[in-house]
């Protein structure tokens, strides 16, 4: 067609706009044949090329045809073949309090999770179903799905969350709940930097501050389902409030020795104190 890259990007953005969605029944009438399977696969192929190579990583099957292209992207993103259950070591009362909205979240970002001895690991895909945790004696391992942030995904997520908020669309607010959870972890550019360091977040925007602003902006418009990720939030909260020696040592390290120079100065102070003590001991011994 001879389109420039920037023109093609504008076309893709228009295709994902909620107000520009064509009903699936109309797409069937416009399709080249009567094979519904090839139409669905063509739509999936388009989404794979436009959104992310890891968005569609398996042969997915749905019981009902999509309402439109945006609805198909939502179904793919939230696809679950094996539903995860609440682990047996979860404090059930605490989880229920989160589901009812009776317990406030005290942690604010990734930086605070790091101080609380919560280890981040990258999941195998970008699907929210890969969000999980493993609780060990002195630390919590939180596995997060891959997060791809670029101009296309930013526009797409704004439209997906707007779609879930439509009054005529009954749903479980899966997209809103997931991004609300991510918003509770990402507060400023240091959180984005930590996620990038762990290989969890891939940023194609201009800087980390822009990514943090995106999550903070979209977080103000979300209508999450309180029950979703309640067990994960409860486990994070329990680890955040953990008063064990290991957690205390990690917090002290990140508070007082978060820079190599700080540790070097602390080392010199210890050596200086030790040498002074020896000198004083010899001075007292010689005086006697």
Which percent range fits the helix content? Answer: 40-55%
Q: Determine Rg (CA atoms, Å).
A: 25 Å
Strand order of the largest sheet: 1-3-2
Shape: elongated
Main sheet makeup: 3 strands, mixed
Distance between the termini: 98 Å
Number of strands: 5
Class by alpha and beta content:
mainly alpha
Please tag this protein with its features.
288 residues; three-stranded mixed beta sheet; mainly alpha
Q: What does this entry show, briefly?
A:
The protein is mainly alpha-helical. The protein is 54% helix and 7% strand. It has 13 helices and 5 strands.
Would you mind describing this structure in some detail?
By secondary structure, this protein is mainly alpha-helical. The protein contains 13 helices and five strands. The chain has helices at residues 5-16, 24-30, 36-50, 69-77, 92-100, 110-115, 151-164, 174-185, 189-197, 208-219, 230-240, 245-256, 260-287; strands at residues 118-122, 132-135, 140-144, 147-149, 201-203. The strands form two sheets. It has a three-stranded mixed β-sheet. A two-stranded parallel ribbon has the order 4-5. Strand 2 and strand 3 form a beta hairpin. Helix 5 crosses helix 11 (230-240), helix 8 crosses helix 10 (208-219) and helix 9 packs across helix 10 (208-219). The protein is elongated and about 105 Å long. The termini are far apart. 26% of the residues are buried.
């Amino acid at each position: 067609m001879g389109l420039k890259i920037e023109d093609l990007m504008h076309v893709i953005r228009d295709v994902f706009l909620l107000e520009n969605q064509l009903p699936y029944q109309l797409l069937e009438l416009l399709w080249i044949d009567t094979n519904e399977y090839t139409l669905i696969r063509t739509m999936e192929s388009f989404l794979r090329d436009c959104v992310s190579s890891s968005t569609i990583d398996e042969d997915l099957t749905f019981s009902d045809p999509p309402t439109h292209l945006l609805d198909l992207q939502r179904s793919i993103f939230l696809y679950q073949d094996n539903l995860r259950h609440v682990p047996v070591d979860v404090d059930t009362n605490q989880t229920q309090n989160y589901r009812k909205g009776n317990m406030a979240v005290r942690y604010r970002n990734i930086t605070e999770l790091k101080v609380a001895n919560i280890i981040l690991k990258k999941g195998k895909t970008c699907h929210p179903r890969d969000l999980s945790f493993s609780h060990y004696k002195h630390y919590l391992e939180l596995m997060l799905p891959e997060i791809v942030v670029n101009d296309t995904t930013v526009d797409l997520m704004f439209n997906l969350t707007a779609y879930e908020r439509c009054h005529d669309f009954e749903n479980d607010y899966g997209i809103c709940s997931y991004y609300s959870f991510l918003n509770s972890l990402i507060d400023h550019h240091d959180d984005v930097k930590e996620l990038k360091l762990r290989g969890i977040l891939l940023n194609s925007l201009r800087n980390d501050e822009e990514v943090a602003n995106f999550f903070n902006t979209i977080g103000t418009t979300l209508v999450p389902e309180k029950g979703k990720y309640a067990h994960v939030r409860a486990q994070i909260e329990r680890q955040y409030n953990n008063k064990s020696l290991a957690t205390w040592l990690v917090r002290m390290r990140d508070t007082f020795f978060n820079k190599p120079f700080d540790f070097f100065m602390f080392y010199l102070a210890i050596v200086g104190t030790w040498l002074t003590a020896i000198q004083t001991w010899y001075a007292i011994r010689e005086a006697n």
